[in-house]
Structures are given as C-alpha cells and as structure tokens.
Amino acid sequence: MTSLFASIEDVVERFAGQHYICNRTIATVVYLASHLRKPILVEGPAGVGKTELAKVLAGALDHELIRLQCYEGLDESKALYEWEYAKQLLYTQILKDKIGEVIAGAQGLKEAVERVARQDDVFFSERFIVPRPLLRAITSPAPVVLLIDEIDKADTEFEAFLLEVLSDFQVSVPELGTIKARHVPLVVLTSNNAREMSDALKRRCLHLYIDFPDKEQERAIIMLKVPGVAARLADEVVGAVQAIRKLDLKKTPSISETLDWTRALTLLNIDTLDGALVDDTLSTILKYEGDIRKAQAELKEHVAKVRATAAAPAVTAPEKDVLH
Amino acid sequence: MDAKIIEFVGLLRQNGVRVSFSESMDTFRALDVVGLGSRLGVKDVLRATLVKRSVDVPTYDSLFDLYFSGIGEIVKGAESRSMEAMELDPAAYQKLLEDLAKFLEEQGIEPSELTRALLQQDTARLEQLLREARDRSGAQRIERSFQEGQYSQGMQQQLGVGDVARELQHISDALGAGEPDPRRQQMGRFVDRRLQELQEMIRRLVRGELEQRDVGQRDAARMQALAEKSFYYLSEDEIRRMKEAVTKLAQRLKNVLAVKRRSSRKGKFDVKDTLRKNLQYGGVPFKIRFDRRKRVKPQVVVLCDVSDSVRNVSRFMLQFVYSLQDLYSKVRSFIFVSDIGEITRLFEENEIHQAIDQAIRGNVINVYAHSDFGRAFRMFHREHLAAITRHTTVIILGDARNNYNLPHEWVLKEIKQRAKQLIWLNPENRMTWGFGDSEMDRYQPYCDVVEECRNLNQLYRVVDRMVVG
C-alpha cells in the first residue's frame, strides 16, 4: 500500500511516474484533496485530461479506480445499488419445498404469513444486492479513487442525491440499515460545463480548472507520450497546435488529438510541417471540414513564420560541414 | 494572515463571487495543510477552495494580485522607475544608495523613519508604512473615482509627507552645498525624485483600493444596463459585447430547458413494455414501465426584416435562433426588405457571425431598397410556403413600416392556417404601432403572439417562451 502524498512536489513526481505531466496548480489541489479528504470538481474543455487525472491519481496512490459514468437518466439503481429480483425469484422457486416446511403446520393464514415474515430478511440480505459504483466505493475494504465522470450530463435530482453521499460517505438501504464507508474514498468529479453545477455541490468540492497546457508543457507531454519523436517535429507541432487553438473553431484540438497527430506524422516519416502530406493529416486533429480549411491557411502562415526565424541557423549548419 | 484572508473573502463577495462560510473554513484548513510558503501556492489554494465558477476566475485573479501584492508591486514599481529614470543598472543603483547613506552619516543627518526607508529603498519597511497609513486613513472605504484625491490627501497627512518633503529638501540642499560634484549632483537628483515617487505610490495605492471594490461590480452593472438598452442605439463595442451576452443567454436557456424536458419525461403506463420487461420474472410485474413521452422538437421558420431600422434586432434574433439550433429539428431563415431571400444555407456553411454579416451586408438581397412587407410576403407565399407545416413556428421580425405599399395581409392568414403558431416581434415601441405607415394593426389579427422586442431582456423572454411552448 502506497502512502499518501508527502508534499506537493511528491504529487508532481509520482504523477510523472504515471506519465502524467501536471503543473503546480493541479498538484496543489490534488495534494489538498488527499489531505482534507474533499472531492475535487474538475472542469475544463474537452480533452485536457480531466478523466486521465483520476486514473493517474489512482495509479499514483496504488488505489483501485471505480468509475461512474454519468448520463441523462442515471438514477440510484444504476449508481448506488439494486436488488437482484431475478436471483431472489430464482431462490424462492428453488426453495419452495423449504418454504413449505417453514409454514407446515401453521394454524391459519395469519400464522403462515407471520412465519414467512420472520424469514424475509433472508431475501433482503447483502447476498441479493447488486452494488453499483457508489456502494462499491463505500464498502470497499481498501481505499479507492472514485471517478464520477461527466457529472454535468446527469440530472439535477441525481446531483442532489450525490450531495448526500459525498458529504457523509454513508448510504442507507432501508432493508439493511445504514452502511458507512470504511475508508473515505478520494472522489474526482469531472464536468464539461454542459450545465452549471449547483452551488451546494460546488461548496463541498475543491474546484480545479484545467485549461489547455502551455507550449513547454504540451511539448513535454508529446516527448513523454510519443516515444521516438524528433525534438524539432515536437516543437513545430506544438507551435502549430497552439496557433490553431487560437482560431475560432467549432472544435478545438485536444491534447489527445495533438498526440494522435504527432504519431501520425512520425508514422509517415514526416519530420517537418511544410511537407505536402501534412495537410492530409490535419483530419487527426480537426473534425470539421470548415475547421480544416481554416487551419490549413493558418498552418501555412505559421510554418512560413517559423522558417523565416529559423532560416539563418539552418543554412549555416551545412556550410560548417563543408568547411571541415 | 487570518484577518487578511477574511477581508479578502469579503472583498470577493463584494465583487459578486459567491463564497459560503464553509468554503472560507475550508480555506483555513487547506492553508494549514499546505502552509504559507509560496505566494503561488497560496493563490492556488484560495482559488481551489473559494472560487467554484470558472467565470469568476478572472475576477479572482485580478483581486488576488491587487490585494496580496498591491502595495509590494507598487513599491517595487517605484524602484524600477527610479532606476530607469536615473539610467542606472541595479549594481550602480545599489552603490548610489550606499554612497548616499554614507553621506548622511558624515553630515550627521538623522532622517525620520519614512525618509530613511525611501532613501534606502527599504521595500519591506516602506510597504509596512504605506499599509499602516492606508488603514489609518480609511482608504479602503473608497467607492467612487472622484474620491481618489480626497483619500490620497488623507494618506499623505497620515504619512506626514510635508515633513518628509522638508527633510528631503534639507538633504538636497546639503548635497548641493560646496563645490559642484557630479556624484553629489546625481545623489541630489535621486533625493528629489524620491518625493515624487512617494506621491506616485500613494496615488497608485488609492487607485488600487478603488479597483478592488470595482472589478466585478462594474462588469455586472454594465451587463445589466446592456440587457435593458434598446437595440436601436448600440455602439460597435456594445454590439460586440451583446454578441457575448446572447451566447451566454442562449446557453442558459438550453440548461433550463434540459431540466424542464427531463421533468416531463414520465408518461403513461406502457402495457406492452411492462409485459416484455417482466418476462424474466415469470410474468410477475416487478417492474412497471411508463412510456417516454416523445417531444416533437419544434421547427422554426424565421423571417427577418433587415432594413436599416431593425437590423440590429434581426442580428441578435438570428444569433439567438442559431445558437439554439439543436433544440429545434429544423430551422429555416429568410431575410427581406422588399425582396425575400433564404439564408439557411449561409448558416450551414459559415460560422454564425460571419453568416449574419454576409446576410445583412447585401450579398443575398438588396438591403438598400425601401421596405415592402406586402411584396416580400407575396414572394414568400409563391416560393416558400411549402416550408411551413403544422409543426412549424413562424417568427416574423419587423417594424411593419410598409412605406404605404399594399400590405397583403392574406399571406399571413394562410401562414397561420398552416403553421403551429405565428409570432410577430416588433422592435418598435407598442405606442407607435399603427401610426404613420405602420401596418401593425392589419397584421396583428393573424398572429398568435405579437410582442414588443426592443432589448435583450425582451428578446430573451420571447425566445424562452418559444422553445418551451
């Protein structure tokens, strides 16, 4: 069992060990969350690594990751627990004879019902409960990381219900009583801001906004995740992507798409962005025809600019070779 | 530090950031864990615990900088300004300070605390003195920009700037005495500068205090004013901000709608589905199924007058409708002045604002003609009537000022018979309808809803009713 984070630097280090590059802000919030035992609400544009953060957190702490994917219409029976009716039914069928024994010799209907009633907690025991992610996180014997993904997609009623769970980390199952968490799980909620979360929920969480990474960070991510990429290509890709993100696009390229693009370019043995093939690979980062057209123009300009500044040293280098 | 954070929380609240008591408690617990070691660390901690809406982040950032480093920045700024003005690099500047200290010692001059801090560039001490003077003079209570002078004055008195000026004058005189010496002249210039710098620092500090009270408030007030402002009188800058406001409102409407839609989801008992679902329980109805009420997404046809007088309203109406496009199954839009033209394709192929710009610049129809509603309606009837089905909501946006042409209101009658509803939005004041060349009275009887729509709030209400109803 790996221990909690010792310091903010420790967070950065251990995340790096999981191949996740994070800045100090992220590390600070993670450190706080692990020590204050408060949920983190992560917001930000799609594809900046919100979900990844939870996975990495689980990896860094060596905890199990339990994931609850939210969607419209998600309710308690899908998130918390459900009675396994079919199994209960099956058991009653199989145990028909046994039930016959129990009520054998009962004086009248009333007594028979009494006798059955005395046995009914057999059918409402943990044996017949299907634990869903929330209950699993609470009853887990080892500490876990609970990822509640895309909470903005869930209904407001579910949010209210979640509030209860997150504040006490206990749930009450009417037939079984209250189940308290053995270990308070580390909770990460992510939201794409499809709708504003309620203030009550936000109040209980630490808030973290992850934006697109800056140049150096994105470059570091590429170098880490795409082994064998040329440093020069990484520079150019990052420069181009950052410029493209500034355009007014329907969908801005995310980090994972930057990585895809770099991989595609490496695979095609392209080591600079002014080749003819590059335009064709743009579809890896942009998913709309209009966006691609806009980006092509921007890319040309960008490459030209880079060439202009880099031209001088690029020319002098071969000359030196000749001299020697 | 605790008191400072409590005050900072108060400041956030003043600027419209909602911070609850439990959140400020969290901040203290969090600071206990992380410590006050680094400034950036503290900033991250406060941000994670206090600011939960991303729209509040810019306000928070500027407030944090103003509040926690305001004075320090001001003092440091004064230092670099001095250095620049004297054309000295840091080392030479330091040397000058040392020489000056030596000179004062030789002359046996004992400067007061503030003067010493000023001349020795004792940043920490200076900061403290300024902060004390600020607290004593009550500069935090500043609310309006015209009070800047008054509070600067108060701070100068608290600091005893008059005495400092006399002291500096005295030192400057002492430096000037005797035969001219370039080094001494340089020191003299420095001493003279420092008084100006002190006054500058005070002025900036008071301004900073004012800005702290003002960051969010100003924005909120401006937005409010914008929402009530008539579309007729918008400046370029306001049009730009109005675009943002429309985007935000559209987003809000979507959210509201999503909730409303969900709450009306459960429908009638569904026998077929219940039987099927309960087959696995041997036909015992463990689970009751209800049918999901299918909501027919409304179709919309928009007819926008884009003549001079109503162009702005049309612009925002179109933006609104297209921002909400995914709430409708189909949107078709037309613009007219005296001809009518369809711009649906334009919106499919271009980004909203570009499409609107192109549409009202005259690429589709002649926008400089005189309005002729009758003619435009007749053209619509001839060419596009098939666009209207019983699921269609038709929205006509225009002032109905027809230049005394034939109104052809029979077209509206037919549209109304075919459509689900017909809405007319008029950007003119209701009082003026029907006067002059306004044909509103003739058109009105054929419309299901007629609304005045002169500013953003009215527009919002109309669109709200349209998508919900």
In short:
The complex is a heterodimer of chains A (324) and B (469). By secondary structure, chain A is of the alpha/beta class. Chain A has helices at residues 8-17, 24-36, 50-61, 76-79, 85-94, 96-103, 108-118, 133-139, 156-168, 199-204, 215-225, 231-245, 255-267, 278-281, 289-323, and strands spanning 40-43, 64-69, 81-83, 129-131, 144-149, 170-173, 177-180, 186-191, 206-209.
Count interface residues per chain for the largest interface. Answer: A-B, 34 and 36 residues
Helical segment tally of chain A? 15
Strand order of the largest sheet of chain A: 2-5-8-1-9
Average predicted local confidence, pLDDT of chain B: 79
Query: Could you give the distance between the termini of chain A?
Result: 59 Å
Q: Total number of β-strand segments of chain B?
A: 8
Low-confidence stretches of chain B: none
What does the radius of gyration of chain B come to? 34 Å
Protein described:
The complex is a heterodimer of chains A (324) and B (469). Chain A is of the alpha/beta class and 324 residues long. Chain A has helices spanning 8-17, 24-36, 50-61, 76-79, 85-94, 96-103, 108-118, 133-139, 156-168, 199-204, 215-225, 231-245, 255-267, 278-281, 289-323, and strands spanning 40-43, 64-69, 81-83, 129-131, 144-149, 170-173, 177-180, 186-191, 206-209. In chain A, helix 11 (215-225) crosses helix 12. The termini of chain A are far apart. The model of chain A is unreliable at 312-324 (pLDDT under 50). By secondary structure, chain B is an alpha/beta fold. Chain B has helices at 2-14, 21-34, 39-50, 57-86, 90-107, 113-120, 123-137, 148-159, 161-176, 182-228, 236-263, 271-277, 311-323, 344-349, 352-361, 373-384, 410-418, 440-443, 456-468; strands at residues 266-269, 290-292, 299-305, 330-336, 340-342, 392-397, 421-426, 449-452. In chain B, the strands form 2 sheets. Chain B has a 6-stranded mixed beta sheet, with helices on both faces. In chain B, strands 1-2 form a two-stranded antiparallel sheet. Chain A binds chain B through residues 8, 24-25, 28-29, 31-32, 35-36, 38, 41, 43, 72-73, 85-86, 89, 155-156, 193-196, 199, 202-203, 205-209, 248, 250, 290, and chain B through 18, 20, 22-23, 26, 29-30, 33-34, 40-41, 44-45, 47-49, 51-54, 57, 254-255, 258-259, 262, 265, 280-282, 284, 286-287, 349-351.
